[in-house]
Design a protein that fits this description.
This is Ig-like domain-containing protein. The protein has 210 residues and is mostly beta strands. The chain folds into 2 domains: 99 residues, Sandwich (Immunoglobulin-like), CATH 2.60.40; 97 residues, Immunoglobulin-like. The protein contains 1 helix and 16 strands. The strands form 4 sheets. A 5-stranded mixed β-sheet has the order 10-16-15-12-13, with no helix packed on it. Strands 1, 2, 3 and 6 form a 4-stranded antiparallel β-sheet that branches. Strand 7 and strand 8 form a beta hairpin. The radius of gyration is 25 Å and the shape is elongated.
Length: 210
């Protein structure tokens, strides 16, 4: 019979960052600084999940031992990486069939973001018309929208209205009939974490009055 090699063990990795994104968002949440992160794995060998209850598993974060324990397949921690860097996670299974199995995972750290959602096809604002814009925050360390503050400006002038008070993520823009044709209208949304004002993001949006 021909000699065949047994399949090498494979790590099945999953991780999740617990920060705020809109409820409809189906993309991956990436951590920012201070985001809680959970990561887990299964070891697959010959198409079967391996029971690791008797094997010591060591977890390293950015080259430092974070924790260890027999059968330890899930950990939670707080991201300490700054935006633009990779968090390096290493899983080491000690003395698995006479050798150490290692797996490296790279998790990018991001910055919070805000997007001004415009339902309009162009950046033309018709004089005398009313427009509605919405600020969409992503990746803030918040549980819900109420944990965030929204500051809108139009041409560097702060916007104060009952509409903004009730729905701070919404801007209602009334283009006055006295607005000169061709005038540029600059919208700006600044979103901040109420519990940590250093955590903020800004988005600008330009319109032309016609």
């Amino acid at each position: 019979m021909p000699f065949t090699h047994a399949a090498s063990p494979q790590f099945l990795i999953s991780w999740k960052a617990y920060n705020y994104t809109p409820s409809w968002y189906q993309g991956k949440n990436f951590p920012i600084y201070s985001t809680p992160v959970e990561i887990s794995f299964e070891l697959l060998e010959n198409d079967k999940i391996v029971n690791l209850s008797k094997h010591e598993v060591r977890w390293y974060i950015n080259n430092s031992l974070f924790t260890k324990g027999k059968g330890l397949r899930t950990i939670s921690f707080i991201s300490k990486n700054k935006a633009g860097t990779n968090m390096v996670i290493r899983i080491a299974i000690v003395a698995y069939k006479g050798e150490e199995l290692n797996k490296l995972i790279y998790i990018p750290a991001k910055s919070p973001e805000v997007v001004i959602n415009s339902p309009y096809l162009t950046n033309i604002a018709k004089i005398g018309e009313t427009y509605r814009f919405k600020a969409l925050p992503f990746l803030f360390n918040a549980n819900r929208l109420n944990n965030l503050s929204f500051d809108w400006t139009v041409n560097n002038q702060a916007v104060f209205s009952e509409e903004v008070d009730e729905n701070p993520d919404i801007l209602i823009l009334n283009v006055s009939t006295s607005t000169p044709a061709g005038m540029q209208i600059n919208l700006s949304a600044v979103v901040s974490n109420i519990l940590n004002t250093v955590e903020s993001a800004t988005e600008n949006f330009k319109l032309i009055a016609k």
